[in-house]
Write a structure and sequence with these properties.
InterPro entries: DgoD-like (IPR034593), Enolase-like_C_sf (IPR036849), Enolase-like_N (IPR029017), Enolase_C-like (IPR029065), Mandelate_racemase_C (IPR013342), Mandelate_racemase_N_dom (IPR013341). This is Galactonate dehydratase. Keywords: Lyase. By secondary structure, this protein is an alpha/beta fold. The chain has twelve helices and twelve strands. It has helices spanning 43-57, 65-74, 82-103, 133-142, 161-179, 195-204, 225-229, 246-255, 265-268, 270-282, 295-305, 365-371, and strands at residues 8-16, 20-27, 32-37, 118-124, 147-151, 184-188, 212-214, 237-239, 260-261, 286-287, 314-315, 350-352. The strands form two sheets. Strands 4, 5, 6, 7, 8, 9, 10, 11 and 12 form a nine-stranded mixed β-sheet that branches. A three-stranded antiparallel β-sheet has the order 1-2-3, with helices on both faces. A hairpin with a 3-residue loop joins strand 1 (8-16) and strand 2 (20-27). Helix 8 (246-255) runs parallel beside helix 10 (270-282). The longest helix is centred in the N-terminal third of the chain and has 22 residues, at 82-103. It is globular and about 65 Å long.
């Protein structure tokens, strides 16, 4: 192993409220980098995966990020999937943070440099069973956002055509009636709407001129996107948050069934997200990085947004309903573990580019260690009216 100041010495994982999994990489010279894993409902598996992957990289040169990414992804016979993907992504983000800090540069300077001064953001309204979205959207407009996203439906079954369609149209219509064209609206299907109902919804939603409909089909049935696309609706289709790599994304681009790609930096890793965005650009596909996550994940995602011209908008989790209601955990916000909230604060609905080194944020080690502790988030346990387990 190299006798170098940049030799990786420790990789620590911290579970902190409300549902963040933060990863800290330290090298022999005392330098530190931070990353963030997700898949919080399988937190113990993620923490274990980080520990397993650490065996592939501890003792090695932290500057060789691509080599270490390859080792984490290819070092075992069984590979791939979201658990290993998010563990590797967190370590890789921390390596970029550490490397860029050592050079006194922002990460985006290593990826071609900035192409923009600000990245548009959107905010969530409603919850898993959306209600009261008009008032929530009004609050978001007052905060400066001009784009929102909400869940399309609660549980939906193959023959729930009238109720599901009517409810979704009424909800979107209420926003259009209240705010007209001043508000851009995205609708998240979460893969929970069966194909026959999705096809009807895509046609019926056309007059509302949505930003996109998201995850109309779950990843394991992505082949069905061709049937959804055959409807001929003008509503853009977005997907990709559960995909781990360029190899997962390529079939969607090649088949022309995605209009807005939504990879998550805490599933793909930072450099892989940048590679996916460049590949999507070849197909004239926009990228809207998925990120209902914590502060490190958002900071890493923004570094890619600042340097990739086809990144159209950035998700963020401020005030999201996912922060609440789990085992009595505190509400928590993006800034709880930062020394300075400014880099992740939106102004007029935009994140503004800074030149701070690394990921552009300073994680408060003391706050992380003081709040760290194991927690678990329950599965939603949704069922249909006849008792069958329902898609979340």
């Amino acid at each position: 192993m190299p006798d170098l100041p940049s030799r990786i010495e420790t990789i620590e994982t911290f579970q902190v409220p409300p549902r963040w999994i933060l990863v800290r990489v330290t090298t022999a010279d005392g330098a530190v980098g931070w990353g963030e894993a997700i898949v919080a409902k399988r937190a113990r598996a993620v923490v274990g995966a980080v520990a397993d992957l650490a065996d592939n990289v501890v003792g090695r040169d932290a500057r060789r990020i691509e080599d270490l990414w390859q080792r984490m992804h290819r070092g075992g016979f069984f590979r791939g999937g979201p658990i290993l993907g998010t563990a590797a992504a967190a370590v890789e983000q921390a390596l970029w943070d550490r490397k860029a800090r050592a050079a006194g540069l922002a990460v985006h300077e290593f990826l071609g440099g900035a192409v923009r001064e600000r990245v548009r953001a959107y905010a969530w309204v409603g919850g898993d069973d959306p209600d009261g979205v008009v008032e929530h959207a009004r609050q978001r407009l007052e905060q400066g956002f001009s784009a929102v996203k909400m869940n399309a439906t609660a549980t939906a079954d193959h023959l729930d055509r009238h109720a599901v369609v009517d409810d979704a149209l009424a909800r979107v219509g209420s926003l259009r009636d209240a705010f007209g064209a001043d508000l851009d609206i995205a609708l998240d299907f979460h893969g929970r709407v069966p194909r026959p109902v999705t096809k009807i919804l895509l046609r019926e939603l056309e007059p509302f001129r949505l930003l996109w409909v998201e995850e109309p089909i779950t990843p394991e049935t992505d082949d069905a996107l061709r049937h959804v696309a055959s409807v001929g609706s003008s509503v853009p289709v977005a997907t990709g948050e559960r995909l781990t790599s360029r190899w997962d994304v390529l079939p969607l681009l090649r088949d022309g069934v995605v209009d807005v790609l939504q990879p998550d930096v805490s599933i793909t890793g930072l450099f892989e997200l940048e590679k996916i965005a460049r590949m999507a650009e070849v197909y004239d596909v926009a990228v809207a990085p998925h990120c209902p996550n914590g502060p490190v994940s958002l900071a890493a995602s923004l570094q890619v947004g600042f340097c990739c011209p086809n990144v159209a908008i950035q998700e963020q989790s401020g005030g999201i309903h996912y922060h609440q209601g789990y085992d009595g955990l505190p509400t928590g916000e993006l800034f709880d573990y930062l020394r300075d909230p400014a880099p992740l604060t939106t102004t007029g609905g935009y994140f503004h580019r800074g030149d701070a080194a690394g990921l552009g944020i300073d994680v408060d080690d003391d706050a992380v260690r003081a709040s760290a502790g194991a927690w678990s988030l329950p599965d939603p346990d949704w069922t249909h009216h006849d008792g069958r387990y329902a898609e979340w």
